[in-house]
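Following up on my earlier thread - several people asked me to post the actual chain instead of describing it. Fair enough. Here it is, all 329 residues.
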Amino acid sequence: MSFKLYATGEWSLTELHEQMHQRGLRGRRGGRLTRSAFADMLKNPAYLGKVSWRGVVYEGKHEPIVPVEIFQAVQETLARNNKAGARESKHAHYLKGLLRCGECGSRLIYTIAKGRFPYYVCIGKAQRRTECSQSHNPVQKIEDQIVEIYGCITIPADLERNLEESLEREIAARESARAEATRFAAKRLGQLAGERDKLLRAYYADAINVETLKREQDRIDTETGILEAQMAGETIRLHEAKKIIKLALRLAKNCRASYQKGSPETRKLWNEAFLKRVEIRDGKVSRYTLAEPFSGLMSGSNKKLLVVLIGRSSNREFRANLRAFHQGE
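Reply from S.P.:
Thanks for posting it. Predicted structure:
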């Protein structure tokens, strides 16, 4: 998730570091991961299925976790953000990161003119990176249109019953696969622990040199870390998908009224959970995309929704949204 978010270019390293800490990212000993360690994580070729040793990158024996195109986008964003240049003003607003220019696709950034007039402007135009012709968008006008989006969100009447029945069948099938994967990972972890012991005995017996020891230990550490992460994901209780669906259905029954009552902090939570992207053109919302699971709910696409809800890569994000809503309501 960290790689996908940073690859968008919409997060600073500091902002994403804090966000991922709030969502449960921790260091090896369970403590807070430092900002520099977080940056190193984003640069680590292990996520591509490779191993780095003394500045040389080798093909590893483990499967890649992050797609090549996303990893490369992250490296480009890191390099770009390290360069000196114009920086946008730092202002807090609950729509930050959500809005895009409907003409050129650049982010809309929040700015306060003369300390009194808040508006959103296309960053591509502001930094002269594009030939965008869009003018400034008063914040209040955009806020009112976001409210109207929530007024358009409705749920098919028969969705809840069909969704719960489909969920029960999907969970039963996935539970069986999860148990088998966990057994395999546990067995492999035991094998790696045995390999580590043999390495140490060989080193103490002068059968291998220190370079070989370090190289093999790095290999074992890398594979162990990947397996432990897989086991953590596999052992997530699948019935949390039920909680998320029920919460999503309840929230989506009267979106507009609930959203209007919310504080800026609560509205931010709603926008992060409901909306993936909102495009503004000529001062109006020209297009918007709902985030999962709400996209699946609104379309009634049960199969697609279940895949996203129970998919290994998405569980952590949805659990974080679930906790956030319980705290923000």
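Residues 84-89, 308-319, 325-329 have pLDDT under 50 and may be disordered. That should answer part of your original question.
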